[in-house]
Design goal:
mainly alpha; Helix Hairpins; 2 helices; 97% helix; transducer
């Protein structure tokens, strides 16, 4: 009987030690999960801020498209002005030679403006496409963050359940 009692005491002590170790491990896991959850939350907040900034950048790029369109219209009007000036200079004959030089410079200015606007338009479209790509990536990242947050909540619930079970084991071991 003494052997059996000693054996029960040993089993009780073993269960208590295992329970204690389990509780400590679960506490460490909970702390780690909480740290990860804080990180996921910070990432989600940063992601939301980046989404706002890319939306604002997209709006600015669209405004730039409007400005480019206006400048293109001015360039077209300048081309017509140069053409009209050339026609009037030709009509004026010798007395319009000075005006012909001005007309030629107006056409050069118009062509240079047109080339510059085309380059600017290309750059703005590239930037706009890049912003859209970033926006898509941020939306994907946001979805992943939400999924990770949900998974962390499930893990936290499971760890809490295990922790309750470990405490219950400790209580049972104390009663032995």
């Amino acid at each position: 009987m003494s052997n059996e009692l000693d054996n029960n005491v040993n089993i009780k002590d073993e269960v208590k030690n295992i329970t204690k170790n389990l509780v400590e491990s679960l506490s460490q896991i909970s702390a780690g999960i909480n740290e990860v959850a804080v990180g996921v939350q910070q990432l989600a907040e940063m992601n939301t801020q980046l989404l706002r900034e890319t939306n604002e950048a997209n709006k600015k790029a669209k405004n730039s498209d409007e400005i480019v369109g206006i400048i293109q219209d001015i360039s077209k009007q300048t081309t017509l002005l140069g053409l009209n000036a050339s026609i009037e200079a030709a009509r004026a004959g010798d007395s319009g030679k000075g005006f012909a030089v001005v007309a030629q410079e107006i056409r050069k200015l118009s062509n240079t403006s047109k080339e510059s606007i085309n380059k600017i338009d290309t750059i703005i479209k590239y930037i706009s496409n890049s912003i859209s790509s970033i926006d898509d990536s941020l939306n994907s990242t946001n979805e992943i963050s939400q999924n990770q947050s949900a998974a962390l909540q499930q893990i936290t619930a499971s760890v809490e359940e295990l922790n309750s079970t470990a405490h219950l084991l400790g209580t049972i071991a104390d009663k032995l």
